């Protein structure tokens, strides 16, 4: 025991990096963990044992090799199935949803999508937290923190939603402070974090989905309304000096286009979102379901057979490709991932979109950037949970002791 503790003391600084490697699926075995951390097998074993004792990971008691593999078999590492969770919440133009998310980006439980009837952000967040607290009571799991995704740029360090254009909130709503207050009122003594929904989508996809392995990842996605973008640089979410980077929804792609809430005209935000597709196809929004669901349903049932839907899809792809090409020229990403309606447009005609981006971007003819669909369900919720998990990933012992 003394030797194990001595090894752990030497590897204390390795606990966080080790947990992040298991969390992101990059260390499926103790041998891989040893190599990735650059420590001895004994130290890696002590670190893995400590993370297991904290209820965060599992370590196979009997190592086994894969069929046909050579060399000494290694203990397999996994996420503890009954471990702690983060409370995650998302507010969007059509309502809200809450979820419990474990390590590995695994959604443990989620509420159905709910309508947010009140324009007062404090009331909406009270309902969000109430739904999340009920999930926690039912699951009986320890909560390490809470994260909130909102469809707005979130200014740092104050945590204010500067431009919730598609919510009936006044600009500058103090969402982080309101979220923290609602958590305390619900009897949840955990830290509350918040961020822009597309930023959090990119973070989740980079760690657990379509962006895994990318160094410079560009994410562009439609929400229930509007368009957002995010950038991950060298594994870290790039939010700029005040949390306001990558407002790509306000790139102009049609100077003669529709007015935008930002004061401009023909922005990606109004030319390539769900409402834009319905409008271009000559469809009026229906009373049932979100605009995003209606637009995706229209693509699924009307493309390519319906000429109006086919023409509308081509128009949106041309505009989206023009915007992506400009971003490629400026940011030089090594991968682009698309979410929301943009994912559906890519799946409808990937060749056309890639051709537009290649023809319009500076380096398009010498090497195209891979453009892939987002792959995670509820990726903004998973990203919100990542905010809550980050203190644990940074220092598991300190974070879990403080949350006890």
UniProtKB/TrEMBL annotation:
<dbReference type="InterPro" id="IPR036388">
    <property type="entry name" value="WH-like_DNA-bd_sf"/>
</dbReference>
<dbReference type="Pfam" id="PF00480">
    <property type="entry name" value="ROK"/>
</dbReference>
<dbReference type="InterPro" id="IPR043129">
    <property type="entry name" value="ATPase_NBD"/>
</dbReference>
<protein>
    <submittedName>
        <fullName>ROK family protein</fullName>
    </submittedName>
</protein>
<comment type="similarity">
    <text>Belongs to the ROK (NagC/XylR) family.</text>
</comment>
<dbReference type="InterPro" id="IPR000600">
    <property type="entry name" value="ROK"/>
</dbReference>
């Amino acid at each position: 025991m003394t030797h194990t503790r001595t090894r752990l003391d030497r590897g204390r600084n390795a606990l966080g990096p080790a947990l992040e490697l298991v969390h992101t699926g990059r260390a499926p075995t103790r041998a891989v963990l040893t190599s990735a951390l650059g420590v001895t097998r004994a130290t890696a074993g002590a670190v893995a044992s400590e993370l297991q004792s904290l209820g965060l990971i599992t370590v196979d008691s009997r190592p086994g090799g894969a069929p046909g593999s050579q060399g000494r078999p290694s203990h397999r590492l996994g996420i503890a199935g009954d471990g702690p969770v983060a409370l995650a919440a998302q507010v969007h133009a059509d309502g809200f949803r809450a979820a419990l998310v474990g390590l590995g980006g695994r959604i443990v439980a989620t509420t159905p999508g709910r309508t947010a009837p009140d324009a007062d952000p404090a009331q909406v967040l009270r309902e969000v937290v109430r739904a999340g607290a009920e999930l926690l009571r039912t699951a009986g799991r320890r909560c390490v923190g809470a994260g909130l995704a909102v469809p707005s740029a979130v200014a740092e360090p104050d945590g204010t939603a500067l431009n919730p254009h598609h919510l009936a909130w006044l600009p500058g709503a103090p969402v982080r402070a309101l979220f923290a207050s609602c958590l305390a009122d619900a009897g949840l003594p955990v830290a509350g974090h918040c961020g822009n929904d597309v930023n959090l989508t990119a973070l989740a996809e980079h760690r657990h989905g379509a962006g895994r392995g990318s160094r410079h990842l560009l994410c562009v996605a439609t929400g229930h309304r509007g368009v957002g973008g995010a950038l991950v640089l060298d594994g870290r979410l790039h939010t700029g000096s005040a949390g306001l980077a990558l407002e790509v929804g306000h790139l102009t792609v049609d100077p003669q286009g529709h007015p935008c809430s930002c004061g401009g005209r023909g922005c990606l935000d109004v030319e390539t979102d769900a409402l834009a597709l319905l409008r271009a196809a000559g469809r009026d929004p229906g009373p049932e379901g979100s605009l995003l669901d209606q637009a995706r349903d229209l693509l699924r049932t009307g493309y390519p057979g319906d000429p109006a839907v086919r023409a509308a899809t081509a128009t949106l792809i041309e505009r989206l490709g023009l915007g992506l090409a400009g971003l490629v020229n400026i940011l030089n990403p090594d991968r682009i991932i698309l979410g929301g309606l943009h994912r559906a447009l890519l799946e409808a005609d990937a060749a056309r979109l890639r051709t537009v981006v290649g023809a319009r971007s500076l380096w398009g003819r010498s090497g195209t950037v891979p453009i892939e669909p987002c792959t995670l369900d509820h990726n903004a919720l998973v990203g919100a949970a990542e905010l809550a998990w980050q203190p644990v990933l940074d220092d598991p012992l300190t974070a879990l002791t403080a949350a006890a």
